[in-house]
Model the fold of this input.
Amino acid sequence: MEATSKSAVAEAQARIDDEVALLKLPMCALLTRRNALSPVSRLPHEILATIFLYQAYSFYQDHEYSGTWDAPPWANVSYTCRHWRDVALNTSSLWSFLFVSPPRWTEELLSRSKTVPLTVHVNQGYWDREEMVFLEKVTRDVMRIQDLSLEFPYKLAKGVFAKLSASAPLLHTLRLGTPALQTLELRGCHIPLSSPIFTGLTTLRLTRYCLILWANHHRDALSNAEDILASQHSLLPECLDLPHLSRLALVAPFSAIVVFLSNVTVPLKTELMLCCLDDLG
Done:
């Protein structure tokens, strides 16, 4: 008897909840119409989206070392009103800033960002399972990553690099930090010589387009190797000091090798291997 009574009460409450929900619909519609009359709602979608992007990018850059978030703080703009939510959800770039987050939000960011290039930062000295799960998910879309910054313990280096073995054609910025890194091989990417990734290296191998990109990035006024050799000054605004290097291998056109060697300092005992290609590589 008591069970029947409780069931009847639950059913009555459910019917009332349904009626309340029906009443909320026209109320929401009226509020949407009212909000549409406010000045901010008359802003063009492009301007509103730019404001959202600026807020997201600023917060992402200022707090990249603060650890993990349960959700991106800039997602709050999508909870303000229906108009803002529509603009936010249709601005794919707003969701392209990825950070260590619960799997649900990582999947949501990858979905909302659609096909736009991704920025991925994991700048934490300690890693646990959450960081590895995050990296596993985002590297499935490595073809979309354009800015990648990782700082990780040396003991995880093998596992991290294994997840980065696929081609990344859009990648233009790469920052890697591991305190005990000693051997580094780069192919087809340009990393500033000021990057701390070079600190402590004992073996460095730079191949083909890596040095071509370096040379072209800094050599606008020099058209051939003779001009480079005739220069009496460092060609780059940044120089690389490798005091611990024991092996250096360079595979690139002669002019690109000259550009690099004119701006790097290594110990006299460093073993040097040079493979000079023609200009076509």
Summary: DSSP finds nine helices and ten strands in the chain. Confidence is low (pLDDT under 50) at residues 220-226.
